[in-house]
Write a structure and sequence with these properties.
alpha+beta, Butyryl-Coa Dehydrogenase, subunit A, domain 1, Butyryl-CoA Dehydrogenase, subunit A, domain 2, Butyryl-CoA Dehydrogenase, subunit A, domain 3, 4-stranded mixed β-sheet, 4-stranded antiparallel β-sheet, binds flavin-adenine dinucleotide
Amino acid sequence: MIDLLLTEEEMMLQAAVREFAERELKPRAKEMDEKEEFSWEVWRGMTALGLAGIGVDPAYGGDGGSHRQMVVAVQEISRGDAASAVNLLAHRSLGMETIYRYGSEEQKLRYIPDAVEGKAVLAWALTEPSSGSDAAAMDTTAILKNGEYRLNGGKTFITNGDVADATVVFATQDKGLGHRGVSAFVVERGAPGFETRKQRGKMGMRGSNTVEMTFQDAVVPAANRLGEEGMGFRYAMGVLDASRVIIAAQCVGIAQAAFEAAARYSHQRHSFGKAIASRQAIQFMLADMATDIYASQTMTLHAATLKDRGRPFLTEASMAKLYASEACFRVCSKAVQIHGGYGYFKESDVERYFRDARVTSIYEGTSEVQKMVIARQLLEQFKS
Ligand SMILES: Cc1cc2nc3c(=O)[nH]c(=O)nc-3n(C[C@H](O)[C@H](O)[C@H](O)COP(=O)(O)OP(=O)(O)OC[C@H]3O[C@@H](n4cnc5c(N)ncnc54)[C@H](O)[C@@H]3O)c2cc1C
């Protein structure tokens, strides 16, 4: 049995990030949501804490550290403001992770140290207007001509897309080859033929910028291709497997914030002469919420522990993401219910938690996609 209790080091990290989230994120979360804008102040705070360097070798400016530490940090950031966690994880767990894992030494030295310090923001662009879950069906093409790639096509829903100094972009060199035709490239801000447009009007995670990208004969030096030609789709899937554990951690953080708000409110709100906390119906909702959070947290830490120990973790990562995202939505919905009519207004934090929670079972693979991954892995074991 794996001991999931936090280590001394993890508890110290948890305390430091919680203090930051209480001081810097909670008081700003409502305003960021209203303005629908990435906050540079928050960005500088998160990166000054060293959060973008977790799991990065000191040779590239990081402090080392484990996937469990990233889980602990993202949970606490999300408890303060879920959108700030999206910004951090699109940068660290997607853009930076792809360069860190698959980039050449020269590429790593060019991008990772600045990204760890927060001097450079990274984004990661896989999704297209006509291909999300079926990402390998992408239309964006990359053609090698005279020593440089020309990219044509478009991406959608890209987190950090307009604030990023560099974006990891997936494009196909031969659509006929399916996923084997896809390669990964680093496209820098200002590359000729590369444009971004902010997509406004999100339901939640509004303190995070989501962006459409267009490539019209966009020029990408050959030196900016990551790894081997035709391996891009595998790189993307490898990065997503690990990142799903981090999304699960985000769900735990949002759910925890919603639970705490609901538990506090249940003591303050009186009906029929008593605090609603004394009613069994409310207590049962709180008990269900806490149980969902405990299960999500345990699954998330377990998946991260498997990864840290070099054990297979793909099924557990998808299970944690599937369970934690759906549990997060249940918990936030009950938190609104406990707040009654007040929970339906923007004045209450639970209204925002409820909206933020909704996307977690959509991005980085919908719940249906997670079930496909889980079933595929399990059925494989029973093939004769
Ligand atoms: C706020 C936000 C931030 C995002 N950030 C990024 C980012 O930084 N980078 C990036 O690349 N992408 C990003 N995305 C995109 C996100 O990953 C996709 O939206 C997601 O993968 C789903 O793809 P889709 O929207 O095209 O839905 P679709 O794939 O069109 O799915 C629509 C519905 O059909 C279901 N479905 C599809 N195929 C099947 C099947 N075979 N069996 C059963 N059901 C199926 C899905 O589960 C879903 O319910 C972001 C999205 C959002 C909303």
